[in-house]
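A further point concerns the way the authors explain their paired sequence and structure data. Nothing conveys this as quickly as seeing an actual entry. An entry of this sort, consisting of the sequence and the corresponding backbone structure tokens, reads as follows:
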Amino acid sequence: MIRFKNVSLRLGNKQLLRQFNLTIAQGEKVVIAAPSGSGKSSLLKLLLGFLEPDTGQINFNRLPVKPENMREIRSQLAYLSQGIDFPNGKVEAVFHEIFQYTANKQLPYSRDLLLQKARELKLGDDILQKNTANISGGERQRLGWALLMLLDRPVLLLDEPTSALDEPMKRYFVDYIAQCDKTVICCSHDPEWQTEPIRLIKNLNR
């Protein structure tokens, strides 16, 4: 489903990836726990088309990750960045706006669905009326997860997705990922992610 073939990437004076190869099957869960600064986040950005490799090829469902294919590819990806940045406004209004985008309009969404997801993630009912500028890091990260779940894309790209959460919530999301039918690439140093049936990669240039 996803293939990095002989991919090299240099940013500034630093060689992040050198002849990197990785194949990820549909439904597989991969956790990248390589050291900081080794190119974990850049790997996700390459797949999203935010960066281009110096050499090598990246394929998604046999489509080359190239500008002309990015609209189709991104429609199947959900990306949770390390410092998720919601637009300013009340949470309920921000989520409503996101689901008015052309790519999301066909998805089932309602205030009740958002409230149900918020309760599952131990967010109080008042979270919908909070301004995104005033929520905590943990609330922001859980809302990012709520958005990810509501978008229901087949491939999840996660960049340090539990760094601001307490241990029970970390365990909740690790269990969710382990049991879901989605393809997942997760960059994280949290030890909770280093469990079966998740495939663990500790070195990107071995």
The mean pLDDT is 93. The helical segments are 40-48, 70-74, 91-98, 111-120, 137-151, 167-179. The chain has two domains: 1-76+155-205, 87-153.
